[in-house]
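Exercise 7. Given the components listed, write out the predicted structure of the assembled complex. Treat all entries as one system.
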Amino acid sequence: MSKVLVVTSGKGGVGKTTTTAALGAAIAQSGSSVCVVDFDVGLRNLDLVMGAERRVVYDLINVVNGDAKLAQALIRDKRLDKLSLLPASQTRDKDALTDAGVARVMDELRQKFDWVICDSPAGIERGATLAMRHADVAVVVTNPEVSSVRDSDRIIGLLDSKTIRAEKGETLDKHLILTRYDPNRADRGDMLKVEDVLEILSIPLLAIIPESEEVLRASNVGCPVTLNNPLSAPARAYADAVRRLQGEMVPMSVPSDRKSFLGKFFTRRAA
Amino acid sequence: MSLLNIFSRRGSAPVARERLQLIIAHERADNGRSDLVVTLREEILAVIAKHVAIEPDKVQIKVERGEGVSTLGLDIELPLPVAARLTGGRTESIAKESMAKEKQAVAA
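Answer.
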């Protein structure tokens, strides 16, 4: 049974695309087939974060409009056989996506892949509601920061009203991934704690991704963080998230980037 | 990766810089006119379609944008009679004739 997962947040810049790429790669590494779909029409970036920006020929809108077959538009990852990307269009706008067209493409993706991960655009408009429309599972990405938490709350409301599952009265599994978390700052009282965010949003926690240099390093080179440095703290947190999504019980922790003495010694600081 | 990092002081930022410069140059060049890849694939397919009936799903197009040179690869599966004509009628079993990858230089 294939699953459609939407990665959404309301607010921009909190880590939706990073999360989509990281979860996609980790699921593919676990042996299931995955397609990551960029719904951010007009401002595509998943291709860049995945390192496939030079290989885009067709995009989601071409497939939705029937200009290209799905198989022609899918870009298979060069590192992971089971991972494919369906890029967004860079030149069109969100209105080019029709409800019926998206429904047809999602059906076709379900037949081909074990997991379909939809990377939602920021905001609460058409692009975001279309990205979540067909989801069975939602991952809400939130930063421990007031505006992000408030926007996540709006998005959770939409997940409960605008998705097909919600309209049918079925359940839609919602999970929280808290990104850019810094346990030290939370301890000092300078950052919202995990419990604070959970209490406000009241959806189950899927993972805590610590603030880490590895995230930027991975996007610099166009490689999902779970592939670029699998032992890094964010990679381990995302890998645990995938195990939980697949039904395993994994104790919750905030992994940290342990640096060896030599590593610390040689780390250069930016001037 | 981490071992490499120890020996190279270069870091990942220069890679990011190069990737961005390349993709943004391509996107700026496309700005205002239609995407070159779209134009090429439509016109090339139209030329072939004049002579051969191609099935749209039997076409694979691959592009690799590089700094000095970009490649456009077309893989078109031709129907059996056409494939036979291409091989001078000697072989009847070759249904698939891969069109040679046409290298297409694009000024960076």
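Discussion: The longest strand of chain A covers residues 173-181. Chain A has one domain: 3-266.
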